[in-house]
Automatic annotation (TrEMBL):
InterPro entries: Aminotrans_IV, Aminotrans_IV_CS, Aminotransferase-like, B_amino_transII, BCAT-like_C, BCAT-like_N, BCAT_family. This is Branched-chain-amino-acid aminotransferase. Its EC number is 2.6.1.42. Its cofactor is pyridoxal 5'-phosphate. PROSITE patterns: AA_TRANSFER_CLASS_4 (PS00770). The keyword Metal-binding does not apply. Keywords: Amino-acid biosynthesis, Aminotransferase, Branched-chain amino acid biosynthesis, Pyridoxal phosphate, Transferase. The lineage of its organism: Bacteria, Bacillati, Actinomycetota, Actinomycetes, Kitasatosporales. GO terms for biological process: isoleucine biosynthetic process; L-leucine biosynthetic process; L-valine biosynthetic process. Pathway: Amino-acid biosynthesis; L-isoleucine biosynthesis; L-isoleucine from 2-oxobutanoate: step 4/4; Amino-acid biosynthesis; L-valine biosynthesis; L-valine from pyruvate: step 4/4; Amino-acid biosynthesis; L-leucine biosynthesis; L-leucine from 3-methyl-2-oxobutanoate: step 4/4. It is an enzyme of class 2 (transferase). Belongs to the class-IV pyridoxal-phosphate-dependent aminotransferase family. The modification N6-(pyridoxal phosphate)lysine is found at residue 202.
Length: 361
């Protein structure tokens, strides 16, 4: 595999410093984008080529471009944080790069070398460093690497041309309420992914498949949907855009990777952070009935969602067709908050990075 060198073709920001600062003061999530983007092409027979950092701009695509019809697309999400000394570091970009390769394999797309993925993220953050929010808060620069099939044609087959891009967006809390607990609708009929499908790939199709249930959840007054396995409709898998953790006193349990849920980087990190804090952590199976019964008998003490965008968000109210219950009296639980603080401290450079997760730029 060839590794392209990324050619820098920057231009002056279209925004004034004051305009950028106003956005950074209250960035929201995924609403604003930085001044540049990285693009790298892949062509059959030639491999990766024409890596460039260019001004952020719309793409021009032929209406018959394959991704628009057959959804051959994958993406990633990772964050860069301002450190106490003013420098910037990203969190575990190697994990995202490897998962991007796994997603590419699943969708019949070419694998971008890990070092090229990291270089692409690095050059964008370095160029647009003024967009990384200040140290101290929870804000960060969210990076969105993605790849689309760009061959033009309507035959259903893996494309022979692709475009890889990285864009960046200053990010505050994913949920408007921040650390306020989110409400969950437990979907007992609609599934997100099936065994042998692509539930463990980070591809837009999985998110599209979740939108109807998400709209139904909103009608029931819930912010997110928890999906069950597609065979027995019994085992809790994930929330569609984030993983789940169940807190049993001193032990945290997350659904094991069965192939139909995403291997979240935050999920993986928390298995270690929890142990560092003296908790037990494990991957396991939790059924929907167990979720309800263990809440009622008091052994299941807290539940939280986790992901790059969501960080760690407590789960409050849970609704299923036959019942409704609440965790931690609708307040963030103690273990949830401790884990959240410990992880954010590592990311913000004020906690010891004993696993070597931070990637300085
Ligand atoms: C992330 O946490 O980075 C995600 O991709 C979840 C969502 C914003 C799609």
């Amino acid at each position: 595999m060839t590794t392209p060198t990324i050619e820098l073709k920057p231009s002056a920001s279209p925004l004034s410093d004051a305009e950028r600062e106003a956005i950074l003061a209250s960035p929201g999530f995924g609403r604003h984008f930085t001044d540049h983007m990285v693009t790298i092409k892949w062509t059959e027979g030639r491999g990766w080529h024409d890596g460039q950092l260019v001004p952020y701009a719309p793409l021009s695509l032929d209406p018959a471009t394959m991704v628009l019809h057959y959804a051959q697309e994958i993406f990633e999400g990772l964050k860069a944080y301002r450190q106490p000394d003013g420098s910037v570091a990203s969190f575990r970009p190697d994990m995202n790069a490897k998962r991007f390769q796994a997603s590419a394999r699943r969708l019949g797309m070419p694998e971008l070398p890990v070092e090229t993925f990291i270089e692409a993220c690095d050059v964008l953050v370095q160029q647009d460093a003024s967009w990384v929010p200040a140290h101290g808060g929870e804000e960060s620069l969210y990076l969105r690497p993605f790849m689309i099939a760009t061959e033009v044609g309507l035959g259903v087959k893996p494309a022979n041309e692709y475009l890889f891009l990285v864009i960046a967006s200053p990010a505050g809390a994913y949920f408007p309420g921040g650390v306020k607990p989110v409400s969950i609708w437990l979907s007992e009929d609609r599934v997100r992914a099936v065994p042998g499908g692509m539930g463990d790939a980070k591809t837009g199709g999985n998110y599209a498949a979740s939108l109807l249930a998400q709209a139904e959840a909103a009608e029931k007054g819930c912010a997110q949907v928890a999906y069950l396995d597609a065979v027995e409709h019994k085992w809790v898998e994930e929330l569609g855009g984030m993983n789940l953790y169940f807190v049993y006193g001193n032990k945290i349990i997350t659904p094991a990777l069965t192939g139909s849920l995403l291997a979240g980087v935050t999920r993986d990190s928390l298995l270690s952070v929890a142990r560092d804090l003296g908790y037990e952590s494990e991957e396991g199976r939790v059924s929907i009935d167990q979720w309800q019964a263990d809440t009622e008998n008091g052994t299941l003490t807290e539940v939280f969602a986790c992901g790059t965008a969501a960080v760690i968000t407590p789960v409050g109210t849970v609704k299923r067709s036959s019942a409704e219950w609440q965790h931690s009296g609708g307040e963030p639980g103690e273990v949830t908050l401790k884990l959240r603080e410990a992880l954010l401290d590592i990311q913000r450079g004020i906690g010891e990075d004993k696993h070597g997760w931070m990637h300085p730029l």
